[in-house]
Amino acid sequence: MAELNTGGGGGKGGKVRSKKSNPGVDLTAMVDLAFLLITFFILTTTLSKPQSMDLSLPDTDKPNPNDVPPEAPAWRTLTVVLGKNDKLVYYIGLTDAPYVDAEINGKPKLENYGGKGIRKAILAHNKYVLEHVDDPNKEGLTVLIKASKSANYKNVVDILDEMAIIKPRSYSIVDVTPGDIKMLEDKKIK
Amino acid sequence: MANIKTSKKSTRIDMTAMCDVAFLLLSFFIMTATAKVPEPKPVDTPASTVKAKLPERNLLTITIGDSAVYLGMSDRETRIAALEAMSLKYNIAFTPKEIKDFSLLESFGVPLDQLKSLLALENGKRNKPGIQEGIPYKGDISENELSDWVFYASEAVILEQQGRGVEKLKEIEVAIKGGSKEKYPVVKRVFDILQKQNVNNFYLVTSLRSEDF
What we know:
The complex is a heterodimer of chains A (190) and B (213).
Chain A lengths: L13 H5 L9 H20 L3 E6 L20 E6 L4 E6 L16 E4 L5 H15 L9 E6 L5 H14 L3 E5 L3 H9 L4
Parallel strand pairs in A: 2-5, 5-6
Antiparallel strand pairs in A: 2-3, 3-4
Chain B lengths: L1 H6 L8 H17 L14 E2 L3 E2 L5 E7 L2 E6 L2 H15 L5 H8 L3 E2 L6 H6 L24 H20 L8 E6 L5 H13 L4 E8 L5
Parallel strand pairs in B: 1-7, 3-6, 6-7
Antiparallel strand pairs in B: 3-4, 4-5
């Protein structure tokens, strides 16, 4: 079998026994090495394939005049404005008149990215909206993402990633307005 | 006596067959593994938790790094057809050898009038830093070289499928590979150019998010 007879065999009756020597080699180490290399190549071929996220932007063609833009009440709209230094401002409702009532304080707030920052706020509001709409299957939270000039690409991907995690009813990337810029200025992250 | 003889039996197994299989698999994986193609501008893509895979065919990759834009087409036929259309539009003729060289180019980032000198370079020298300065994308939103490349590449994909008699035509897929630190206006500009060419769905190339987000 697979073993290398290392000659001799003790000395007694040497002449006869050495002719019986086994020609097999111990392949264990070679097999080990081969499987190690296989594992390496499997991992590098499948893991090097880049991952990606989908992004769908609205059609920019001239809108059909008969189309009515979908209306969402102010309290169901949350806007995120991305500023510099990896900070953002979010508010609920209109830019000029953030929505404030007994339960919601939609005034602009400064926030960080990630699970401890903006995700908490959006999740909380998403939950509130789903509890207070008539039909949670048809209505829900709308998130507007407004990236300012000082935001970078990583910020945009981060906030899109949040959308993939939170899964609000709808979200879209829209242009910033002067009112949003003013908000960033107030929070010193323009 | 019999007991003693059975206990002497070797515990080793014949490894020959296992070794054969292991090396067969090894050679298979080595041959199918594609060597990493050097890029004109390596970028550090932002991390995300979404794990969608990129399509392999009919893919147009737009790399954005240091405010410059680079382009890569996945299929050789698309590259040839797109280059021929571009050379007609910009009135720059390419020799058959240059077209062949271009069809082997994974990605590039030079204005069309500098493409000849890029193709004249040796393969190893093309991706040196500073050689490729990016495809022009400023100016009119639907009249710049980037938008023309996108337009002709998507046209080439459709024509190629029609040539093969495919029933259900598939549009070109666009992937955007941007650097983390890229300023948003640059990315927005690329989005706008793509939307002008009726490309409203695309992939953003990201890397795996490892840290707790």
